[in-house]
Amino acid sequence: MINDKEHQILCNADEHILDEIRKRMYNGENIWSLPKRNRHDSGHALFQYPAMMVPEVQRTLVDIVKTSQPVIHTLIDPYVGAGTNITAGMHNGLNAYGQDINPLAVLVAKVRSGPFYIEALKERTKYVIETANLDQSTKIAIEYPNRQKWFRNDVALELSKLKRAIEQDDKIWARRFMWVTLAETIRLTCNDRTTTYKLHARPQYEIEDRTVSPLATFTKLISNNLQDLAAYKCELTKKGYINRGRFNGKVIVSIGDTTLNLNNLRSQGPKYFDLLVTSPPYGDNKTTITYGQHSYLPLQWINLRDIDQQVDKTCLSTTLSIDTNSIGGKRSRNLETQIDRLRQLSQSLANTFDKLEDKPIDRKARVASFYDDFIKSLDNVVAVLKKNAYMIFIIGNRSVGGVEIPNHQILCELLETRNAIQVTQFERQIHHKRMPHRNNNSLMMRTEKILIFRKTTAQGEIP
Ligand SMILES: C[S@@+](CC[C@H](N)C(=O)[O-])C[C@H]1O[C@@H](n2cnc3c(N)ncnc32)[C@H](O)[C@@H]1O
């Protein structure tokens, strides 16, 4: 039980959050919909991961909540992606835990959490580039199905030289920085089109005519990435959060399936968190954003053990494996039972199934498998939040078979039955988000909702 005084403090914190959000909406420019877009902010451009959040928006949200409730020390993002929310936590001096099912996301988020040994990285990357340029071997370092479809031989050869040279570096933090840069090099030099996240080869004439050199691309990207990392370190240093090249809080990023558990909390991290900040997937990957397909080619060249000891290499068995393992990727054998169960959990979800009644069965299955997994992961996440922890969700709606899925309403109902109270919700327009407006299966979002809740039950508990 909380006493009156504690209750008043919490209400004041909620009010303060609301005021600060409104101030940034109406005083001058609306920073939620028109944030400063700086591609070089906090290592944002190291790798172009799909649907990345805008650093300024996330940082401001965390700043507001932290200022309103100064006892906040630990942040969690259970669908961490490229780690924008982790960097937002670091800018606010918080310890942070992130996990994702996609090894490439984990790699990018790890690099963005440091260490920031810029001078050493300059030396090591210079040496690796020299070594790769001197490599006379004609051996292609990896073989996997369809390698030749996705990489011209000359491109594969230069990538092989880079891979061999990176492997020789004896520091994992240096190798990770170079693997991320190699991943972006691969994105830009392989035969996949850069206009979609799904794997889709360029036309043959274009593949043959293109002038691309992974060695040259990598060299340029290394220089850009070093500058970005140095600028990010400088920002953290100004705030007093860097000590001997490292962030002085604790940041852990792990591979993990949030529908199963939060992987490393028991052994390594804090058990309970003060703040959740996340942008979960808003549908199954296959029909929304194919994070896994987008990561498949780079991951073939990177030593998975360097990303995380626990990465299972079967995640690369096919181009679809990561997306199939992600939230909503697998269909239930017993759809009707699954839907009946889900109907009980949210009225808006039940209404959605009603609207999908006369649509092809696959449409209902898509929504059901997504929500079945999402709710499992939500329960795992709510269970590791402390009492009175704040939760910030950035969430988009989508349509399936022409029916709008009210993700934010469903989430509100799910959280209410988990004893969370809503502090506020507001909308953000997305002006330049790098994603197609439409794909074959669904209408893509152009606005997203920011929902802020506070959990009222004790840590470890979900009702
Ligand atoms: C919208 S993205 C997060 C983007 C991130 N906020 C950023 O700024 O880069 C959603 C993430 O959820 C991850 N995801 C999907 N299913 C998952 C699962 N079962 N466990 C953990 N992460 C999952 C995806 O791999 C993807 O990276």
Give helix and strand order, one letter per element, not per position: HHEHEHHHHHHHEEEEHHHHHHEEEHEE
Percent helix, as a range, is 40-55%
Unique bound compounds: S-adenosylmethionine
Number of individual domains: 2
Shape: globular
Radius of gyration: 22 Å
> What would you give as the CATH superfamily of the largest domain?
Vaccinia Virus protein VP39
SS elements, strand count: 11
Outline the structure in words:
The chain contains 17 helices and eleven strands. It is of the alpha/beta class. The chain has two domains: 4-114 and 250-289 and 307-332 and 378-455, Rossmann fold (3-Layer(aba) Sandwich), CATH 3.40.50; 118-229. The site of S-adenosylmethionine (SAM) has 23 residues, from helix 3 and strand 2.
Briefly summarize what is shown:
By secondary structure, the chain is an alpha/beta fold.
Question: Which descriptors apply to this entry?
Answer:
463 residues, alpha/beta, Rossmann fold, 2 domains, seven-stranded mixed β-sheet, two-stranded antiparallel sheet, 17 helices, binds S-adenosylmethionine
